[in-house]
């Protein structure tokens, strides 16, 4: 199947074939798309916090991934070859919907694709060995989001994590509401930017790291609270005339934050949980802090569960219109040949989003 673009027979890709630290850069054959698959030339791949687990191959990695695989799930590329049943044309720029839903389970039958109970995952060796840290990659047509604008490859790669933030903010219903975002890591600062873009009144960012709080301000937070210096509940009560805050988005996953956020919440308020607590969570006084407050608690996993394309479209629109400055969260960029430097930078805690370019 010859196409307009020349595709070489071999390519460079990061691989993890056995348990142990890091990845290996290997020269492997460029795969041929079958059925509805397309072959994309990868333009950019952003690194995610969860890739740290895959790099180190810790206990979490053994649950969320399967050997062998190519890492990278925040991926954008250009279609260069199409399988016989592909529904996308060569030359189209796409982002990868990394949550590979089955299309057959109860959730999928009810159009809740992003919480498919048999979910596979691109870049994790789940149902596919392929991932975005590769010069070329195979993706089924149905897991491609077709870009509509000319946003940069680095921005397009970051639409995947931004989608999680967007989904959370849609669930939270922030228009004309004050919002508290706990945890100002990559997802938290994206939540702040999306909340402002979607009409929140005041947005507060809370974290223990001054560098993250600076970025939170840059991304649109009206005020930031360093929770290693101040009692979060006291500050929030002071700023809300003792009412508590109407909307909280929890992005830290830190058990003390998850356990106590309820005391800052206004009666009748909404909470959305994104951060992943690695220990059990425990709420003191659940009657007064939760049940009698008539709160609405939501959680998210990936994009809008009944219409993931809506999330992709809205995120691309907000970036293309300059309403979310995705560029500002990208602190580092590396050629794929320097992937070790990229991961060391991530481990140093000095980076927000890091983008890798497989063609360099
Ligand atoms: Zn990710
Ligand atoms: Zn399913």
From TrEMBL:
Co-factor(s): Zn(2+)
Record's keyword terms, sorted: Metal-binding, Oxidoreductase, Zinc
Q: Which SUPFAM superfamilies match?
A: GroES-like, NAD(P)-binding Rossmann-fold domains
InterPro entries given in the database record: ADH-like_C, ADH-like_N, ADH_Zn_CS, ER, GroES-like_sf, NAD(P)-bd_dom_sf, Zn_alcohol_dh
Could you state a single Gene Ontology molecular function term? zinc ion binding
Residue limits of the Enoyl reductase (ER) domain?
20-356
Identify its protein family. Answer: Belongs to the zinc-containing alcohol dehydrogenase family.
For this entry, the protein name equals: Uncharacterized protein LOC106178076
Provide the species name: Lingula anatina (Brachiopod)
